[in-house]
Design a protein that fits this description.
Blueprint: H1 6-17, H2 22-38, H3 42-52, H4 57-63, E1 67-75, E2 84-95, E3 99-108, E4 111-122, E5 127-134, E6 141-147, E7 153-161, E8 168-176, E9 182-191, E10 194-205
Antiparallel strand pairs: 1-2, 1-10, 2-3, 3-4, 4-5, 5-6, 6-7, 7-8, 8-9, 9-10
Length: 208
């Protein structure tokens, strides 16, 4: 058979045997149809996103913490050492009616200290979440936790890379809402079953 006739012979053979690209095309169409069926209903998806974005009671609680405060800071450089005490300026305001933004300014360990925190309640995960940065580090501390049954204390847990050991370390914080104008913030280093307090901040609203 001359080469020029080979394509014609192949086409004739495919036609005669019923072999074609249709099965592959049908399989592709079936997969596309199946994928489309798995997609959520657009209206239901939009409703879920709208509901997840609504500020709720937890965000109203965060809004009640806004204002200008005087922060008395106790820092323990070692478990058996006396605390170093300093006074900072602290302010907090809400962003988008959903996030509490905190700003600290003062002196710590003999040098100026500036820190910024962000606290939120995630409607989807049903947890409080926070992020923290300051001028004494280059990382971002993130923590997750919950309000206790009393509705007056939030306990959060997080991890950070310890510069000394080069390994991940655990940390714990407790925010206690002692009154409408005062609250305390405690920070602990967690080593096994032991919790070692490293910092305590008492916030008092200015003008009260």
């Amino acid at each position: 058979m001359r080469p020029i006739l080979a394509p014609l012979a192949a086409a004739a053979l495919i036609s005669a045997t019923g072999v074609s690209a249709l099965p592959a095309q049908q399989e592709h169409e079936h997969k596309a149809e199946h994928a489309q069926q798995q997609m959520p209903d657009p209206a239901a998806m939009m409703a879920a996103y709208v509901e997840a974005a609504k500020p709720g009671p937890e965000h109203q609680m965060l809004a009640s913490l806004t204002g200008e405060y005087t922060a008395t800071v106790k820092f323990w450089p070692a478990p058996d050492a006396p605390p170093q005490v300093s006074t900072h300026d602290y302010s907090a305001h809400m962003m988008f009616d959903r996030y509490l933004m905190e700003e600290y300014e003062g002196e710590m360990l003999g040098q100026m200290f500036n820190g910024i925190g962000l606290v939120a309640f995630d409607n989807v995960e049903k947890h409080y979440v926070s992020a923290w940065i300051d001028n004494m580090g280059t990382g971002i501390m993130t923590m997750t936790g919950d309000m206790d049954e009393s509705g007056r204390a939030i306990t959060m847990w997080g991890k950070y890379m310890d510069p000394l050991t080069g390994e991940m370390a655990k940390t714990k914080s407790v925010v206690s809402l002692t009154s409408d104008t005062e609250r305390t913030y405690e920070m602990y280093m967690v080593a096994g079953d032991a919790e070692i307090k490293t910092m305590e901040i008492t916030l008092k609203k200015q003008g009260y």
